[in-house]
Request: fold
Amino acid sequence: MFSNSQKWVEEKIGLYCQKSEDCLKLGLQVVAGCIGNTEYEKWRETALEVHRTESNADDLRREIEYFIFARSLFPESRGDILGLLERFDQIPNQIQTTVRMIVEQKINIPQILADELDSIASTTQKCVDATIKAVKLIFSDLQGVLEILGQIDAYESEIDKIQSKAIIKIFNSDLSDFQKILLRDLVNSISDVSNHAEEAGDFMRIIIAKRMM
Amino acid sequence: MLFFLMLGTSCFLGITLGANDGGNIFGTAVATRFIRFRTAAILTFIFVVIGAVLQGSKGIETLSEITPQNINSSILVGFVVSIVGFSLIILRQPISLSQAVVGGLIGLGLAQHNVQWQILGKVFLCWLLTPIGAGVIAILCYKVLLTIFSSMKIGILTRETLIRRGLIFSGILGAYALGANNVANTVGMFTGAWEGVSNIELTLLGGISIGIGVLLFSKPIMMNIGKRIVVLDGFSALVAVLSSGITVYIFSLIGVPVSMTQAIVGAIVGVGFHHGVHTLHFKVIKDILLCWFIAPILCLILTSSGYAIFI
Reply:
C-alpha cells in the first residue's frame, strides 16, 4: 500500500537506532570496566569501536537526510524527521565524548562511585532504550509514543537525582581537587546522555501535538 | 465572425475560470507541497472535462432561465465577465466568476427589462449558503477526520501518505464538481443563442477551456490561495479541499452554479475557526469579501451600459 521510499526511510531509521544502541552498550562497557581499574589501554580498542559505530550512525543519518531532501519526499514530515534525527544524534555523540574523556584523560574512577555510576549507566540504558522505542513508534503508532515519553522523563529525572548524589559524594571525599573536578565532569558527561534523550523526547511530543490538533 | 467571437469569448471565460478556480481546487495541496503542480493541473483538466460533460447541463439550464439572450448579448456578457475576472485575477484576488456571470446576466436583463427574479432568488440563496455551508462542512469534516486519524495505529509517514492520497481524491472530487457546476458560467449564456450546438458540445468546449486555464495559468493562484487566509498544514488542506468539493458537488446536484472560490474560502475559514479565530487573516478575508461584491456589481453595470450603447 505504501511507497518503497517510506519503507526505505523506516528501515534506515531502524538501522540508525540499532547503531546508536550498539554505541551506547559499548560506551557503558567502558564506563563499567574503568571503575576502580586504570588499565585504560585495555579499553582503547572498545573506545575505537564506539567511535566507529558513532561514525556509522552519522553516515546513516546523512544518508537518510540526503535521500529525503534529494527526492523531495514527505514535505510535511521531513523537517520533523530531520529535527528528530539531529536531536537523537546527540546521544551517540555524548557517549563517544564520555568514552574519549575516560580513555584519553585516563580518569581514575574510584570504587566509592561504583554504585552511583552503575545506577546512572543502567538507568541511562533504560532511558535510551525507551527513546529508541519511541523513535520507532513515531513511524508505526503515533498514539503509543506518548506513553513511552513519560518513561523517558521519569528515567531522566532519576538520573538527575543520582548525578546530584554522586557529585556530593565526590566533593565530600578525600580526593584531590583536580580529581574531583575531573570526576564531576565525567558524571555530568554520562548524565548528559539522558538529557539528550529527554530533548529528543520533547521534540517527539511536539511532532505528535502538531498532528493531534 | 460571430461564431469566432462566441468561441473566443467562451474560451477566454473558461480559461479565466480555470486559472482562478483551478487554484481553488488543488491550491492548498500544492501550496503545502503535498502534490506537484503538474499532477494537480493534469488531474484537474481531466476531471473538469468529465464533470462538465456528464453533469454540466443542469447549471446551463438555470443560467439560461435568468434572462433570454441572443448572440450579441451573450458575447457582451461573456466579454465583460472575462475582462472583469481577468483583471481581478491579475490583482491576485480569488474572485467568484459565478457571481460575475450572474451579475452580467442581471445587467443584461435589467437593460432588457426582463429578469426572472424567482430564479435569481434561488441563485442568491445558494450564494449565501455556499461559503457558510462549506464552513460548516469543514468543521464537521475536521472533527470526523481527526477522530478517524487519531484512532488509527499509524506513524507520521503513513499519515502523510494517507493525507496525500486524500488530497488527490478530494481534488478529483473538486475538479469534477467544478466541471459539473461551473461550466455553465463559461458557456451557459450561449445556450439557444448558438445555433446547431448542443448543450453537450457546449459543456465539452467549456470543460476543455477551463482545463486549459488550469494547465496554463493557475499556478500563481494555486501557490497563493493556500497561504493567504490561514497557514494550513496537510491535514487542514485535506479538510478544506474535501469540504469545498462536497459543497460544490451538492450545488451541482441542485443545478445552481456556485462559486468554487466561495466554497474554498468558506472551508478554509471553517478550518481556521477550528484552530482558533486568531489564526485567521481578517484583512485578506475582508478583501476577498469586497471582491465578491465588486465583481458582480461591476459586471452588472458594464453589461447594462454596454447593452444600452452597443446593442
About this structure: The two ends of chain A are 26 Å apart (CA to CA). The interface with chain B takes residues 2-3, 6, 9-10, 72, 74-77, 80-81, 137-144, 207, 210-213 of chain A (CB under 8 Å). Helices of chain A lie at 4-33, 40-70, 78-88, 90-105, 114-138, 142-172, 177-212.
